[in-house]
Design goal:
The chain is of the alpha/beta class. The protein contains seven helices and 26 strands.
């Protein structure tokens, strides 16, 4: 198995996302819990927004024809405020005091800004106002239906809902939304060398950290994370953990470490013994070469490397998009990279796609300038925490001087 060709990153991601089953279970959640969920059905507006013509400014609702000669003195009949419409009609030579968001009274076809008037009324009293500046027909009026109209489909199935989408659904008069069930992601750390945070590591042991990052990435992508804890390098213990993943209804099992074929790397062996169909193992990337993908019955399996940075980068590039696909997000496979330029020269790359921990520097022209960190070892968590992006170096990229265009992935955009 070790001599098999490495799977290119793009092919690995395509295979992982291509094997994701479309979600079937739908649940209705209140608006308060809808952010980050994926819409299961098209959503149409239950009302028109705004429901009538409303003022965009504070001032006076007038007839534009009355402003042909300035200054113009108009009789003020009353006022219109948000939630309290003026009940009358604005006729020739008349006006109504109006406030932002208030319905425009019948007969009025323009709004004069308050600062373009003298005199006027306070508290809805009648009187007169002297208009000093002309306003064209329709000025400062938001027309009925300017935002959307009843029956218009505004949110489509497969959209991952953000804050603005939830606000739009609320304005459409939906109190609850149909969304796909959250995928269940079981995360299993493996290795005799691991102890839980807060424990007392023995000689040669380290504190487990990868599982917390992967669970955070999965939850940020829309999953319900199941912590399977730490399994030692023992076939019986691994079989027990896999049974817990099945019993927990996992849609995806993520293992951390032990996926290679060394004497102490038992994860792949245990999964195959339980019936896993191996899709691929080892990909042409750095960090993260020993990544495994397969199926254990209906459960998708991703075996991530044990080194912390390798596990987290693979979590960003593969676990998060797979979770979004399992949640029904139609944009799960979108390219997360953006254009940037190198602030410093970089050497030639080998046959693996490189994800280089980097910092974004101030730029006078708005194009991100990026500088690679000096320490790229896949065990160094502090170097990853200090980075704010990854420079993506294609396989066999030639040496690149400063100023060379490149592609980057912002870590914040992936929840890292």
């Amino acid at each position: 198995m070790g001599s098999a060709p490495l799977t290119p990153v793009a092919d690995a991601l395509a295979a992982i996302l291509g094997s994701a089953r479309r979600p079937e279970a739908v649940e209705t959640v209140p608006l308060r819990g809808a952010a980050g969920r994926t819409l299961a059905q098209d959503l149409a507006a239950l009302r028109t927004q705004p429901p009538c013509d409303v003022s965009a400014m504070d001032g006076y609702a007038v007839r534009a024809a009355d402003l042909a000669t300035l200054p113009a003195v108009l009789a003020v009949l009353g006022e219109s405020a948000a939630g309290r419409a003026f009940p009358g009609h604005v006729g020739p030579g008349q006006a109504a005091r109006i406030f932002t968001g208030a319905p425009v009274p019948p007969g009025a076809d323009a709004v004069v800004l308050q600062e373009n008037t003298e005199g006027g009324t306070v508290g809805g009293e009648t009187g007169t106002v002297r208009v000093l500046g002309a306003e064209p027909l329709g000025r400062h009026i938001r027309r009925a239906g300017q935002d959307f109209r009843e029956g218009e489909v505004l949110l489509r199935a497969g959209k991952r809902l953000g804050a603005a989408d939830v606000a739009l659904a609320a304005a459409m008069n939906h109190a609850a939304l149909p969304v796909f069930r959250r995928p269940r992601v079981a995360v299993l750390a493996t290795g005799d060398e691991l102890v839980q945070p807060g424990g007392a590591p023995g000689p040669g042991q380290i504190v487990a950290s990868n599982s917390f990052a992967v669970m955070a990435l999965a939850e940020a992508a829309g999953a319900e994370a199941i912590d399977l804890g730490i399994a030692p390098d023992d076939m019986g213990a691994l079989a027990g953990a896999l049974a817990r993943a099945r019993d927990g209804g996992a849609d995806l099992l993520v293992t951390l470490g032990g996926a290679s074929v060394g004497d102490h790397d038992l994860v792949q062996r245990a999964l195959v013994a339980e019936g896993m169909e191996l899709g691929f193992w080892r990909i042409a990337m750095r960090p993260g070469k020993p990544l495994m993908h397969g199926h254990l019955g209906p459960i998708q399996v991703l075996g991530l490397p044990g080194n912390p940075v390798s596990a987290i980068v693979c979590g960003m590039l593969f676990v998060a998009p797979l979770v979004r696909a399992l949640a029904g997000d139609r944009h799960a496979g979108d390219d997360p990279t953006e254009a940037a330029v190198l602030a410093e020269p970089m050497g030639a790359n080998d046959g693996r796609q490189d994800y280089v921990r980097s910092r974004i520097l101030p730029s006078p022209d708005g194009v991100a300038r990026v500088a690679a960190g000096s320490r790229q070892d896949s065990s160094l968590l502090k170097a990853l925490s200090d980075a704010d992006c990854l420079i993506v170096r294609p396989p066999n990229a030639p040496p690149a001087p400063a100023g060379t265009p490149c592609r980057i992935i912002r870590l914040a955009a992936l929840g890292a």
